[in-house]
Write a structure and sequence with these properties.
globular; 27% strand; 5-stranded parallel sheet; single chain; alpha/beta; 5-stranded antiparallel sheet
Length: 418
């Protein structure tokens, strides 16, 4: 695999490892190393003041039903009990890709036999005037700032109706906030879940009282300060008064450390890795949202999902210790909005036929992508059992009859048994 090292360093069980980034990918790497028998020095570096999980920021934490103390991937004492040195509030500013030392913003250096980059991604900010007046939702500080503005009767403009934008919209509605959702795309997420499911989910916003603007004249061109709040200007000239504006238009890989160290990057950013999380430097692996995976010479689109980042960390730990890499299974992610729990496995849009299981809108349902006798993916709505079975059917490439898939009386686990 040209450009990516096929001879990544293996550390002895007592070797030193530095992990840069305390999100799910970084913490998963640390936890897997200890679980798999690593006993050497293990340092976790994170620029934030609090190690926290990210999915609750747009839901339970924003709604006030989860405290900051409940956001940790592991309790604080876990790191002490497992002899993990946590260096918080400092940034990694230098990386030696040959010796694997990491220089920190406080002037100290962490010496290590291997480094795992897990810096993740930052929120994308569109280039419209006044974008700095809007907030994003990527960190705990972002969530604190947004939560302080979401009072009953407040006016929130959400720019971007993807996963984060939709989740925040639903949470804000539950807080009696007046929400306007702006996205020129008439069917956000259609490329991921298919047009039928995308239409069903997007229609929920209007049904919950959200003003949905979704054509090109509603694209945001500027945000400015106004007496008592903000003004959002649209391409058609309309002005939307707001108490808060959330920009939720995607992510940008954080790759400055990799770039300054000469690691191979993808076009558009992101550290290029192979299926074993190896970078172009033998002593450096990379995991999570800041990476772009290359397979058979093709660089994949960014993933950006929680479970994929977790699995990256487990893979990196196994590679560092010279162990068998765990099976990742079929891709999977979830989202919660209003009263719906949605899970997506595999690639539902890759099928030549969509099999509908259940009755959408009247109870648990699933939309299953089927092609050449096998399942390509699934979207379940309030039907986690089907999602779990579908994930295994996709991973194992089990032959399935579409008429059987469509029958909710059939337990899909039976198909897994042949």
């Amino acid at each position: 695999m040209p450009g990516v090292s096929d001879a990544s360093v293996e550390v002895a069980p007592a070797g030193a490892v530095a992990v840069v980034g305390g999100g799910v990918a970084g913490v998963s790497t640390v936890a897997a190393l200890r679980r798999l028998g690593h006993t050497g020095r293990l340092v976790l570096v994170d620029a934030g003041a609090v190690l926290h999980d990210r999915p609750p920021l747009s839901k339970a934490y924003l709604a006030g039903t989860a405290t900051e103390g409940e956001l940790g991937l592991y309790p604080a004492e876990w790191f002490t009990e497992h002899d993990v040195e946590v260096r918080q509030g400092v940034r990694a500013v230098a990386l030696d890709p040959t010796g694997a030392g990491v220089g920190l913003s406080d002037g100290t250096t962490v010496d290590a036999d291997a480094v795992v980059l897990a810096q993740g991604a930052s929120a994308h900010r569109p280039p419209f005037a006044g974008v700095e007046l809007a907030t994003v939702l990527r960190t705990l500080d972002d969530a604190r700032a947004l939560r302080d503005r979401l009072r009953p009767g407040a006016r929130l403009v959400v720019v971007g109706a993807g996963l984060v934008g939709a989740e925040v919209t639903a949470t804000a509605v539950s807080l009696e906030v007046t929400v306007t959702l702006v996205d020129p795309d008439p069917l956000p997420l259609a490329a991921v879940v298919g047009p039928e499911v995308a239409g069903l989910l997007h229609a929920d916003h209007a049904q919950h009282g959200v003003s949905v603007l979704r054509d090109t004249v509603t694209a945001v061109t500027a945000v400015s300060e106004d007496a008592g709040g903000l003004l959002v200007r649209l391409a058609g000239g309309a002005l939307l008064p707001a108490d808060a504006v959330l920009v939720a238009t995607g992510m940008v890989p954080v790759d400055d450390l990799a770039r300054s160290s000469g690691l191979l990057l993808a076009d558009g950013g992101g550290v290029v890795v192979d299926d074993r999380q190896r970078t172009s430097a033998p002593a450096v692996l990379a995991v999570g949202d800041g990476t772009r995976r290359r397979h058979d010479g093709v660089v994949a689109a960014p993933g950006g999902h929680w479970d994929a980042a977790r699995l990256d960390g487990e893979t990196a730990a196994a590679v560092l210790l010279g162990l068998e890499v765990p099976d990742r299974g079929a891709p999977w992610f979830w989202t919660d909005r209003y009263d719906r729990h949605v899970e997506v496995v595999g690639d539902p849009t890759a099928g030549t036929r969509t099999v509908v299981r259940g009755t959408p809108g009247q109870g648990p349902a699933a939309f299953l992508g089927w092609r050449d006798g096998r399942l390509t993916g699934a979207v379940s709505i309030d039907d986690p059992r089907t999602a779990r079975a579908a994930r295994r059917l996709v991973a194992r490439q089990v032959a399935v009859d579409p008429d059987v898939l469509a029958d909710p009386a059939v337990d899909l686990r039976v198909l897994l048994r042949g």
